[in-house]
């Protein structure tokens, strides 16, 4: 990516972060409620919130990438759980791509990330999360051989992306 685009992405992310946190005291957890309008893959979607369009990345997990086994199943589950529904996002961060990163709460109160990990359709992304519940759910899915854990040696998406497979 060229430096002008990098600067523009950084400025956009900074402005979005400032807008999200502008009316909240330091340390207050921001929650955004909006309609999930489009699902990109198992762990990211577009949300409409009071006239804003936000890109959302599910915190603490990583789903298989397009082309990897179980990517379609992760996408299908996310579509079934969020598309055209009001969801709540407990904002944790804004990532390098300007996406809101947060815990996604489904209309019935369940966590999207937990449901994906429970189904064996996502890894607990320990690089960014020390959530003990996600770690436990992953261990249970592995032990039960659910989803991607049916494979002998599933390749995590962060490794898959770096190998160019």
Structure described in brief:
The protein is an alpha+beta fold.
Please tag this protein with its features:
165 residues; OB fold (Dihydrolipoamide Acetyltransferase, E2P); 5-stranded mixed barrel; two-stranded antiparallel ribbon
Give the percentage of residues in beta strands.
Answer: 25-35%
**In one word, what is the shape?**
globular
Assign the CATH architecture.
Beta Barrel
- CATH C-level name: Mainly Beta
Helix content: 25-40%
Number of structurally distinct domains: 1
User: How many distinct beta strands?
Assistant: 7
CATH topology: OB fold (Dihydrolipoamide Acetyltransferase, E2P)
Number of helical regions: 5
Secondary-structure element order, N to C: HEEEEHEEHEHH
> Biggest sheet, open or closed, and with what strands and sense?
5 strands, mixed, barrel
């Amino acid at each position: 990516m060229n430096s002008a685009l990098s600067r523009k992405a950084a400025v956009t992310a900074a402005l979005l972060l400032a807008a999200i946190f502008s009316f909240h005291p330091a340390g207050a957890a921001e929650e955004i409620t909006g309609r999930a309008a489009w699902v990109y893959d198992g762990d990211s979607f577009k949300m409409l919130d009071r006239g804003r369009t936000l890109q959302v990345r599910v915190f603490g997990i990583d789903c298989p990438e397009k082309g990897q086994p179980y990517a379609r199943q992760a996408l299908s589950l996310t579509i079934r759980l969020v598309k055209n529904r009001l969801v709540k996002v407990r904002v944790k961060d804004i990532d390098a791509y300007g996406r809101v990163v947060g815990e996604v709460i489904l209309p019935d109160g369940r966590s999207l990330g937990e449901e994906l990990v429970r189904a064996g359709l996502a890894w607990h992304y320990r690089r960014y999360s020390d959530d003990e519940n996600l770690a436990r759910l992953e261990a249970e899915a592995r032990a039960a051989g659910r989803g991607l854990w049916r494979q002998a040696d599933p390749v995590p998406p962060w490794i898959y992306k770096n190998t160019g497979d």
